[in-house]
Amino acid sequence: AQSVTQPDIHITVSEGASLELRCNYSYGATPYLFWYVQSPGQGLQLLLKYFSGDTLVQGIKGFEAEFKRSQSSFNLRKPSVHWSDAAEYFCAVALTGTASKLTFGTGTRLQVTL
Amino acid sequence: DTGVSQDPRHKITKRGQNVTFRCDPISEHNRLYWYRQTLGQGPEFLTYFQNEAQLEKSRLLSDRFSAERPKGSFSTLEIQRTEQGDSAMYLCASSYSGTSGRARNTQYFGPGTRLTVL
Q1: Which of A112, B90, B102, B112 is 20 to 30 A from B3 in CA distance terms?
Q2: pLDDT-based confidence at B1, cuts 50/70/90?
Q3: Which residues of B touch A104 (CB under 8 A)?
C-alpha cells in the first residue's frame, strides 16, 4: 500500500526566511502528487500538484515543489515566508490513471515568527 | 464555480444518536469523496462516488456509516449510534475524471463538518 511521510511535525521559521517542507512517498510507480494547506478549523486548499512533465511545479501563494524520482520526494519550497503562511501543510498522493482516493501524510505545522 | 459546500459546519451530539452530513460538490464534478480527519492527523479516505455509484469504501467505514449520492449531485454521510471515537472533522471533496483540462483528477475540498460526540 502506498504511504506518505512528512518527517517534520513542526517547523518554525522567521518571516522573510526561506522554507522547505519535506515529503517522501512509498509507491510502486510514480503517483500523482499534491500539496494542500489547512488553516485551523478549515478545509484543505490546493497549493500545487504534479502529474507529469516538468519536475519543478509552481503553485499559488509563491510556493513551488520539486519532484525527484530517485529520492521518491516532492518537497515544498518558498523563498520568503509571510506571517500568513502559518498553517498545516499536507502532502498527498493518488494512483495514476484512476486518480481515486488521496493518501495523506501526517502534516507539518508551520509557525512563522515576526 | 462556488466551490464545495458542507452542512452543517459543526455538530454536537450525544453518544448513541444518529447524525447526517451533507456535501454539495462543484457542479460539473462527477466524483465525490468523503474523508475523516482526527486531531493532529492527515485526512483519511472513507469512500468515493463516481456519479451515483459508490466505487470504493475504506475499512474505516464501519456498518454504522452509510453514504449516498442518489442523483449524482449532492451526497449525504450518515453515522448511526454515534460513539465518542467518531468525533472528528468530516471532509468532502470533489473532482472530475475527464480526459483533458488542467483541473482533472484534482480534488477540491469543502470546509468540513466538525463532529463532537459527548
Answers
A1: A112
A2: low
A3: 42-44
**DSSP, res A55:** S
| Each residue's pLDDT tens digit, B68-100 | 999 889 999 999 999 999 999 999 999 988 776
Contact residues, B window 28-87, toward A, CB-based 8 Å cutoff: 31, 33, 35, 40-45, 48, 55-56, 58
d(CA A112, CA A18): 11
Q: How far apart are CA B93 and CA B76, in angstroms?
A: 13
Residue pair B115/B56 in contact (Cβ under 8 Å)? The answer is: no
Chain B neighbors of A87, CB-CB under 8 A: none
* C-alpha–C-alpha distance, residues B70 and B75, integer Å: 7
Q: Which residues of A touch B6 (CB under 8 A)?
A: 43
- When pLDDT is averaged across residues B37-48 and rounded to a whole number, the result is 94
Closest CA to A86 of A8, A35, A10, A23: A10
Flag if A46 and B56 touch (Cβ within 8 Å): no
